[in-house]
Design a protein that fits this description.
With about 350 residues, this protein is α/β, with parallel strands linked by helices. The chain is built from nine helices and ten strands. The protein has a five-stranded mixed beta sheet with strand order 3-2-1-4-5, sandwiched between helices. It has a five-stranded mixed beta sheet with strand order 8-7-6-9-10, sandwiched between helices. Bound molecules: 5'-O-[(R)-(carboxyoxy)(hydroxy)phosphoryl]adenosine and zinc ion (ZN). The site of 5'-O-[(R)-(carboxyoxy)(hydroxy)phosphoryl]adenosine (KG4) has 19 residues, from α4 and α5.
Length: about 350
């Protein structure tokens, strides 16, 4: 039986709707929220209001793009968490109402699991190579940094994670220190391309095992910039590209060090990345080198499936539907959620 799923994502500051038929993506529409840029970070209350405004137009756009009528949708999959509660409430309530009106089931989706399952989204008419289970996935977003052994579509084990800040937070917070906009990751990525990555050195954490830490780097970066600015007020302006390149290199080194350790200790050769930070071009280059050195099969998602999108929610909903894992109308969103 062919399955058509409407996916809804509203966990943070992107309102997104997608349509998937079996594993093929028919539409993946996203409304970004520019309103947060002026504040240097996501303002939860403003995010909820913007979701409320965006959700109906985004869903209609997705259905139109897919050329799919409401009556052709078999189920609605939505992000239950983790995320901002007010934002999640908009997507959850919309999904319940849509499903009630159509008389179809709802499927709750864990946003983190969905980032990883984005690797299984197929583009119509294109050849698709998927990672084989068990594979290792480095999940790096604005809120999470985890090393995950993916044993099956819905069976994942976290074997390492950050004990403080996430990798995306390190990018965003350091970008704020030098006056770059929010989110800082993409801006640092662009500027780093023009800078020298060995111009400056910042502290790397010494954490045993497979866990990460990024709060020390953030502090080291902050103090370094503050001290340099005391000597020269123009320091940041004159060294922006080098600062970005050196910071990015440090974050990449930290990420790859534990990823290589994890691959060695598990013996897994299919290695994937997922989440917003996996859009980083420096990281992608470094990963290709690491893959060659370690004989990995490397899986990097297309840019459009790295940051938050409903395509990943719909594909996760597809696999849960196949297993009969439906949610009841009394389900509530959860700000915190584990795998
Ligand atoms: O997965 P995502 O869209 O949202 C969360 O679930 O958190 O990730 C957002 C994070 C932000 O911290 C953003 O700065 C980072 O991904 N990001 C990047 C790049 N694009 C997005 N970080 C580094 N380089 C990029 N090109
Ligand atoms: Zn995300």
């Amino acid at each position: 039986m062919s399955l058509t799923i409407l996916g809804i994502e509203s966990s943070c500051d992107d309102t997104s709707a997608a349509v998937i038929r079996d594993q093929e993506i028919l539409a993946n529409c996203i409304a970004n929220q520019d309103v947060h840029q002026a504040y240097g970070g996501v303002v939860p209350e403003l995010a909820s209001r913007a979701h409320q405004q965006n959700i109906i137009p985004v869903v209609e756009h997705a259905l139109q793009t897919a050329g799919v009528g409401r009556n052709e949708i078999d189920a609605v999959a939505f992000t239950r968490g983790p995320g901002l509660l007010g934002s999640l409430l908009v997507g959850t309530s919309f999904s319940k109402s849509f499903a009630l009106a159509q008389g179809i089931p709802i499927v709750e989706v864990n946003h983190l699991q969905a980032h990883i399952l984005a690797h299984f989204i197929k583009e119509p008419g294109q050849n698709h190579v998927e990672p084989q289970f068990p594979f290792l996935c480095l999940l790096i977003s604005g809120g999470h940094t985890q090393l995950v052994v993916v044993k099956d579509f819905l069976n994942m084990e976290v074997i390492g994670q950050t004990i403080d800040d996430a990798a995306g937070e390190a990018f965003d917070k350091c970008a704020k220190v030098i006056g770059l906009g929010y989110p800082g990751g993409p801006v640092i990525d662009e500027k780093a391309k023009r800078g020298h990555s060995t111009a400056f050195a910042f502290n790397k954490p010494r954490i045993d095992g497979l866990d990460y830490s990024f709060s020390g780097l953030k502090t080291s970066f902050l103090y370094f910039v503050r001290d340099k600015m005391k000597e020269d007020e123009e320091f940041v302006v004159n060294n922006e590209d080098d600062l970005c390149a050196s910071l990015q290199k440090t974050i990449i080194d930290i990420l790859l060090d534990k990823l290589e350790k994890a691959a060695k200790s598990t013996g897994i050769k299919d290695v994937a990345i997922a989440g917003g930070v996996s859009a980083n071009s420096g990281l992608r280059t470094a990963l290709h080198k690491a893959a060659q050195k370690n004989d990995w099969r490397l899986f990097i998602p297309p840019f459009k499936y790295t940051t938050d999108n409903a395509g990943m929610i719909a594909i996760t909903g597809y696999y849960k539907f196949r297993k009969g894992m439906f949610a009841s109308q009394s389900i509530a969103p959860q700000a915190r959620m584990r795998f």
